[in-house]
Amino acid sequence: MKNKKIIFGTLAVMAAAFLWSLDGVFLRPKFYNYPAGVVVFLEHLLGLVFLSPILFLYWRKVFLIKRKTWLALLWVSLFGGLIGTLMITKAFFLAIDGQVTFATVIILQKLQPVFALLMARIILKEKLSSKFYWWAGLAVVASYLLAFGKTGLHLSSLNLTHSAGWFAFLAAFSFGSSTVFGKRLVDALSFSLATVLRFALTVILAGGLLLLDGDFLKITTLDGQHWKLLMIIVLSSGAVAMYIYYYGLKKIPASLATIAELFWPLSAIFLDYIINHNVLSFWQGLATGVLLLSFYKIISQQSEKKKSAKILYQTAGKVIAGKKVGRRLGFPTANIRLMAKIPAGVYGGRVFIDGKKHQAVFFVNQEQKILEAHILDFEKDIYGEDIAVVLTKRIRDVRKFSDNKDLIKQIEKDIKTIL
User: Fold this and answer.
1) Cα angle vertex 251, ends 333, 253, to 5°?
2) What are the chain's domains?
3) Which secondary structure element, helix H or strand E, spans residue 374, and what is its range?
């Protein structure tokens, strides 16, 4: 049986990629005559207004965000929200202006998954099989064939040293790294709060850039048609797409997410066929088949990997009040009496509440006969309720820590091992 979490997460990222293809093909080129910074600022400002109810619901949680999470938020806002969007917009505007070929921009921008895969391995320590990388590499090659399968790639037309090429290269790094730090962000926060905070911080950064460049007043030159297009961006490739994307990223590894993002060129080709009636060439048809096969193989492999977790121990009990030490540290726990014979230690696994499954990290205290469960992304008061517990991974032995700071760092590492 396939893991629904992996499947739904991947499909969500692919849906976001589909919406992004609308942006690049039909929406953003309409702003060719305006500074790229103006477009970036306004699409994020309107997106923030659209997402603002989320901020009102979760504003208290903002004060509990840890420094490491703030740094991840700053990275995705600066690189994914501002620099990446700004660079790719500038690159395509230069291509539209005829200063450089679109091939120059596309061939460099498509380095994005390479950056993401490398950084996911180094920063997030995502360990994937050789089969994953083989299919991922095939997917990247197929995306190039999709882009150049009709016109061919004429090396003489490339100008990789042109400023547009550098813009595309920076966009690839920015978006690729943003996928990795975005994963760190949604691991620490709900995907809803992560989305709205990303837009809020990007608005501040983009607004500051406009003031420095002296382009702020150019906002007043936009006509009614452009304001309508901006609203369409918010409801498609902007706020809505990012909300869906972070929902998916929450459920899957960053490495899988960056490959799922390659649905973008496939959806762009599909839209081109539907709207402009441009038929795929033989090479594009072949690339489509290869890309879809790669998606299927990668998703199947990751799904089966997640489902194969071995059950070490199982128990159940009624949630009782504890000393609230975990809550004071920022990691509240649901505690039950330890009835089963489970060795002391820290474990990863699942908690079942009202028939719903939740990931959790467990501390088994044999001295006090208590099992403490820190349930990820869960805030409901369940005191007095019955829960079932399944331990699937032993993380470490019980250790004493000199201070709470070291303990918090270790708990964060423990959580990361089960994500």
Assistant:
1) 110
2) 4-307 (no CATH), 313-416 (2.40.30.30)
3) strand 370-375
pLDDT tens digits for 338-347? Answer: 888 899 999 9
pLDDT tens string 22-55: 776 667 777 877 888 888 899 999 999 999 999 8
Strand order across the beta sheet in which 334-337 lies = 313-318, 386-396, 345-353, 356-365, 370-375, 334-337
Report DSSP letters for 324-369, one per residue: -HHHHHT---EEEE--S---SEEEEEEEEETTEEEEEEEEEETTTT
Q: What is the DSSP letter of 124?
A: S
pLDDT digits (tens, 9 = 90+) for 138-162: 988 888 777 676 666 565 666 667 7
353 vs 101: CA distance, rounded Å: 56
Instruction: Measure the CA–CA gap between 73 and 85, rounded to whole angstroms.
Output: 16
For residue 43, what are its two tokens?
């699409």
Q: Which residues contact 89 (CB under 8 A, 6 or more apart)?
A: 28, 31, 36, 39, 40
DSSP, res 25: I
CA dist 279 and 283 (Å) reads 11
Main-chain phi, psi angles of 402, to 5 degrees: -70, -30
Please indicate, yes or no, whether the overall pTM of this predicted structure exceeds 0.90.
Answer: no
Q: Under 8 Å CB-to-CB from 274, ≥6 apart: which residues?
A: none
Stated as kind and residue range, the H or E segment containing 77 is none
CB-based contact 241:22 (threshold 8 Å)? no
CB 240 within 8 A of CB 248: no
Continuous H helices in 97-189:
102-109, 112-122, 130-148, 163-188
Query: Residue type at 109?
Result: Q
Which residues have a Cβ under 8 Å from the Cβ of 53 and sit 6 or more positions away? none
